[in-house]
Amino acid sequence: MEIYYVIFGMLALLSVFGLIVGVSNDACNFLNSSIGCRAGSYNQAVCVAAVGVLLGACFSSGMMSVARNGVIQPEMFTFHEVMLLYLAVMVGNIILLDTFNTLGLPTSTTVSLVFSLLGAAIGMAIFTSGQLFTCPLVDYINEEKCFKMIVAIFASVAIAFTVGSIVMWLARLIFSFRYHKMYKAIGPIWCALALTAISYFIIFKGLKGSVFKEDIEMLVNAGYTPHIVLGAGIFWMLISAFLQYVCKVNTLRIAVLAGTGSLALAFAGNDMVNFIGVFMAAKDALFDPAITPDNVTTMKMGEILAGDGDAASLIYLIGAGLIMVAALFLSKKARKVTETELKLSSSSSGKERFGSSQPARIIVRTAINTARFITSITPAPIARFVSRRFTPLTPEEESGANYDMIRGSVNLTIAALLISLGTEMELPLSTTYVIFMVSMGSSLADRAWGRDSAVYRITGVLTVIAGWLLTGVAACLAALVVVLIMAYGGTWGMIAMLVIAGALLIKSTFFTREDKQEIRLIDVHKDASVHEFAASAAGRLGRMVGIYKAMVKALLEEDRDDLKRLRKKARTIKRDLEVLKENEVLPTLPTIPAELADRGQLIFRITEISLTTCERLITLVKASYNHIDNFHAGLTHEQANDLLALTEKIGRFYPNLIDMLKSGNYAGIKAMLGTTEQLSNDFADCITRHLMHSAANETDMRNGILYLTLLNETRAMVSHAFALIERIKELYEG
């Protein structure tokens, strides 16, 4: 039995780790709306969310059946097989998450859990039955409920987006962007609707998974639900009216903060199974009195894993909730993720996270044509009324928040209700994607998606769905492979998987580099900051010149390994430039005042010219590497001499450039720039000599292509380099 206690301990450790990482990563889901619309401070939002998380943990027992019998048929597996299956799920998840994090691909813990259980069950069914292609999987898998869960996960995408769009459109039609006047009249009704909906799902849905389950069912069976809902609505409307009209309290803040708490509750209630569901099921199996050392390989688990688990599990749920609350308060990552996402979502303009795709363009084109058709058949008075309600705020009217409290309350309330509904139906949903899709739907209805961003946002939505599919397939395959290794490998197979899981856990905890690509503005008001930017651009140019000179030497020596190394260095410079542009230059430009517009223009042009110069360099190194890598003959003696002579001239213009810039002695720079015409003539002479030799059949065709590529791309690179030096000099002078 000792090996099973080791497995149980490993499951407990992984569950604690999952709880901490899960709440750190997902805290932004239920905190961003309240912080984004400035309904409260970060600490206030965290306190409200902590209460919701703790309550949600206590209400999550109903979801534990997903790991117990939602995917597998426990009566078909012995205790030994179930413990291996659960261990395979956790180990497979670790391998999956580590792989996806390394590749930078999106994941969902809900999708990962369901499909890992499915893959592990298939693998164990193959082992148990001894049949690979004719295994009766329907006997081992709860196909009806499994299919229902998978459909619910993916259907939640369309449902969340659609409901978020409709409710937000109606809310904006009622309140408009200048909502304060209308809210004074009907604010208590709006607040009461939100609070009543939240109360209904907490009482009748959340508490159905708690110790009050029998009392709630008695009220429902007695037909008191409508009376309680109506009473709650009247109660909240009276409270809201008193706070708004008598106490002069902004009840929208209350609605948003209540939504924050309910969304945190829904998150904990639905996602808790992702982190501790397997551990809880293993606990009930291991400590069941019917399990003895003599029957671990014969005792079937049908009765033991039936239902939702025993009442004593509430202690574990509360403990898990406390771990999540502690992580919520203490995790720096939770605050960092929230702040980063708020910065990135503060404006609909600028660089989009996702690119463009053909399906997205088709969807947007169809939507635009449909909107034009609807507009054409809508009576003019109605069209003008709707247009007035959706007229955005002017820059002078904006409060500086990412969006107003109307949208914040819609995002929180709708997301919480949808997740709570899934929890009540014992359907695991991805809270991240439900919240994301509700936010996308409300943004679309609120006309936050302009024509400049719609294609990219739709591409993002499609990317999320593709990420789900990839996560599901990968999770299923990973768990299947792991369970087969442990089942056929016996004790050594289990030890090997535990060692791999432990190594990956240590790696992800202690040896994963933090992402340091944070937005950092350039202080254009300070000469020192501007000169630092210019000096870094000059230094980067020096590295490119050095790579070019080393490339010519490696090409003539036919050193493939050195060319490969230089290609990697050139690509690294380009990536650094792209990060600089995205995280420093582009965010800085909108903040530059009119009197310093020239500096902003120079900063942007220096960045663009640097990128173009680097792209030319990459083309040169890549062409040289491919030529040598394919074992083509090197350059001729005359070609080599001409190229070396040009390289020597090119290498002269960079030394001491930074010193000249810092000292303000631009005489050397002017002389350097004066060599442009002479260099251009040298390139032309080299091309002419090559073409004459080529006409006389003295040059191999592949050598000729490479040589002409080197000459043309080098001339272009030098031209851009000179332009870059001129812009750097102007930035120093200005």
Question: How is this fold's topology laid out?
Answer:
Blueprint: H1 2-36, H2 42-58, H3 65-70, H4 79-103, H5 109-129, H6 137-140, H7 143-175, H8 180-206, H9 213-221, H10 225-246, H11 251-286, H12 313-330, H13 332-344, H14 358-377, H15 380-389, H16 405-424, H17 431-445, H18 454-510, H19 527-556, H20 560-588, H21 597-629, H22 637-652, H23 657-663, H24 667-673, H25 676-695, H26 701-733
Structural write-up:
- With 734 residues, the protein is an all-alpha fold.
- The chain folds into two domains: 2-510, no CATH class; 527-733, Up-down Bundle (Methane Monooxygenase Hydroxylase, Chain G, domain 1).
- It is built from 26 helices and no strands.
Unreliable runs: 339-350
- Report the sheet with the most strands, covering strand number, pairing sense and barrel closure: none
Q: Quaternary status of these chains?
A: single chain
Distance between the termini: 77 Å
User: Beta-strand percentage?
Assistant: under 5%
Structural class: mainly alpha
What would you call the shape? globular
Q: Please state the CA-atom Rg, rounded to the nearest Å.
A: 32 Å
Q: How many E strands? A: 0
- Helical residue percent? over 70%
| Domains, number | 2
Count of helical regions: 26
Mean pLDDT: 78
